[in-house]
Amino acid sequence: MYIHAMRKRIWLFLIVACILTLIGIRFFGSWWKLLTPSLLFSQDTQMKITSDFIDNGLLPPVYTCDGDGRFPTLKVKDIPAGVKTLALVVDDPDAPSGVRDHLLLANIPLTEDPYVVISQDSFNLWVLGQNGWWEQAWWAPCPPSGTHRYIFKLYALSQKLEISSGFSKERLIELMWGKIVGQTQIVSLYKRQ
Questions:
Q1: How far apart are alpha carbons 92 and 148 in whole angstroms?
Q2: Do you know which NCBIfam families this protein is assigned to (predicted)?
């Protein structure tokens, strides 16, 4: 009788564990990809981003809420072979409420030039995602206190994404999965005066 009761408990435990696993996959399936180092944090050593600020240097105030808030023009060079399109994520990991997205761009095309220019004037040509303030736009840095990091993460993709404007970062990550050929980033710092 004791063995029969134990078997029932084991089967009940296994059924509940399977149900909870399926629920977790359904509702949190793409979140585990956010933590995968090979997707978001490894850096392609060839591809480079440059701008008028240096990596880990101060972001000029003109690109912030203390200036006109324009997006800093980026130049991308040494893009790996086989790349069809680029995607850009700009976020602030130091925001008080957690990581805030300042810009999401997808399907940035390659050009015949030796580099690709990413500028605010071209945003309407690409697919724009929803930033952390529920807008499809660049949100100029305006940290409430202290120095914040603004990370410009660029992904080189093997194919164009089937994605609509207003997408979330989670949706972008889900669609990029398995298509990343290279990636790089540049970090800027800003503290309000």
A1: 7
A2: YbhB/YbcL family Raf kinase inhibitor-like protein
Determine whether 87 is exposed, middle or buried from the number of CB atoms within 10 Å of its CB (0-12, 13-18, 19+): buried
Q: What is the pLDDT of residue 180?
A: 94
Contact 93, 151 (CB under 8 A): yes
Does position 32 have pLDDT exceeding 50, yes or no?
A: no
Q: Answer for the pair 167, 104: CB distance below 8 angstroms, yes or no.
A: yes
> Helical H runs in 29-145?
31-34, 37-40
Cα–Cα distance, 11 to 7 (Å, whole number): 6
Domain containing 9 equals 1-35
Same domain, 10 and 43: no
Tokens of 95: 């925001």
Q: Three-state DSSP class for 188?
A: strand
- pTM equals 0.79
Higher pLDDT, 22 or 150: 150
Between 7-16, 72-81, 132-141, the lowest mean confidence (pLDDT) is in 7-16
Residues 27 and 57 placed together within one structural domain of the fold: no
> 3-class DSSP state for residue 150?
strand
